[in-house]
Amino acid sequence: MLKLLAFCGVLTYVTSLTPSPYVDFNFGGSSESDFEDQLREQEFSEEKIDQLLEEFREGQKELEMDLEADEDDSTVSWAETRGYAECAFFKTPKYGYVEDKKLCSGCLKPKSMAEICAEFQCPFFGNSGIPPGANCGFMARQLLSANWAVTSIDAGDLEKGYEAAFWRLYKYLNGANTQGATLASSVYMVNKWLLGDHIGQIEGAQMAFFIPSPYQDNPPAPTDGQVAIEFWSPLNIYSRAFGGDRSGQRADVIKNQYRMLQRALGEGGVSPNKKMLMTFEFVKPGCGSQRSEVILADHA
After folding, report:
1. In this predicted model, what pLDDT tens digit does every residue of 281-300 receive, in sequence order?
2. DSSP annotation string for the chain
3. The pTM is what?
């Protein structure tokens, strides 16, 4: 993991119930030339731009293979890729099922955690205390303690604040640290959105990138004063997963997934902290979003 990530065509949204604020930041654009323009605007060196564009091309080749594999339902089941069994009350045409079969025209299954962790170092997960298979409609895990690179998102102007936060962390991973090191090629990105007492009010927001080995135990200090290294304590999280960039549909997808997650947790007798919403993404250069999750967590 000694290359830098590139989020091609990643659109990240967060929704509360009503209203539905969301951030639309297309990192990498829709083509290699769009990505190059963004890198030049951020004043990356010619050497680094060449490196990142090559990774972009490699990622696009992998994406083409994933798309071909997704056409074959015999590869990996939806339950395997998601990491949990779907609830019977979601297996209806409203949720994209026909005769108990999941249909997904023009989009990808989420990449399974097993596939991701076999190729790259995952964040540290443990048992949440809920036995696997005891419930349906969500994955329950404990996000174990670890170091994360974190920066605030300006909630006063979410679109500009989100983009600025991303570039700060991106540059930290790309040498804007006291070691001048490139820390990772593929990155786990978590966004935290802290809600106020009024529906739709966002009191605070953070973006965080997981710091992989060999830097996890002693991460290099950021050279940007707005980036910090935070040690996160263990936290039980509950998530639903989906894949693909879902261009033009992602806001609705995330809104629906949060609603489904809340219902599944309610049916399972789990009462999460509804004042903190989280989104998670795993991406590789040129591949877009290979796995996205909507997350609710226990009270810290």
Report:
1. 776 655 555 788 999 999 87
2. --S----TTB------SSS-------BTTTSHHHHHHHHHHTT--HHHHHHHHHHHHHHHHHHHHHHHHHT-TTSS-HHHHHTSPPPGGG-SGGGTEETTEE--TT-PPPPPHHHHHHHSPPPPEE--SSPTTSSSSSEEEEE--EEEEEEE--TTSHHHHHHHHHHHHHHHHBT-BTT--B--SSEEEEEEEEE-SSTT-EEEEEEEEEPPTTSSSSPPPBSSTTEEEEEEPPEEEEEEEE-S--TTTHHHHHHHHHHHHHHHHHHTT---EEEEEEEEEEEETTTEEEEEEEEEE---
3. 0.82
